[in-house]
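FYI - complex with zinc ion, inputs then prediction.
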Amino acid sequence: MKTRIPFISLALTLFFLIVCGPLQAYGAGRIDLVVDRGTSRDVEAAARAAIEATNDFFKKVYGLTLERKVEIFLVPDRQAHIKELKQRYSLTETEAASRAQSTSGSALDGIIIVNAANTGGKQGLFFCLCHELVHYFQGQVSRNFCAIMWLTEGTANVLAAQIMAAAGVQCLEAGLWPEVLKRGPGIPRLEHLHSFKDWGTTINSYGQATAYAVSSMAVVTLIRAKGNKPLFAFFQGLNKAKPEDAFYQAFGVKLADFEKNFRPY
Ligand SMILES: [Zn+2]
């Protein structure tokens, strides 16, 4: 049976819902952008630039090319969002209306649906698409890429910021992570952000902005110490090793020690 576990991605102004699970590689690798009528040319151009920048980044930094087909449906408003959610994900009217209310986008299997009106402008849309596409690369190299959620989501956020920097696009989200933590209700422990269940519990207690911010800062810390390469070595390692072992093999430090010693600022 297929497990569908929804979780929410964010930046302050955007809420992105993705279903994290095995992303099987099949067919020829390709990202198609399907633009709904009513979407401005500027928004469409930002989406195309995000796709191109993500592909360029992964080729250059990790030597990876996306092997599966991904379709991105870009819509301009809530009404079109509900229509696509119903059509592409077979949701009922009520389910689609609820999801369109609470999210700016969803990713399920090879289909991403994004409502550009909810992403906080072109910059937010760029960030959203990069973040979600990083998940597809994670899923391509690992059957178990959600083993440690703070690494899954933190990597998607931090690489999205790097992709934007490489493309010369300002990433407002990255600058906000320390502030989000300073102003939030407290800092969750990384060891409480491993499983889906823990991730959901922490979001309920601390809010999603805090969960994403602490995860992102943890990945920033790892990259500062070890560079970019070990991140995807870790995700690849999850195919053969337990998460703790894959972490040690990739980063040369024990997961428990890193989590215990981590300070976001
Ligand atoms: Zn995500």
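The two ends are 42 Å apart (CA to CA). The chain has eleven helices and six strands.
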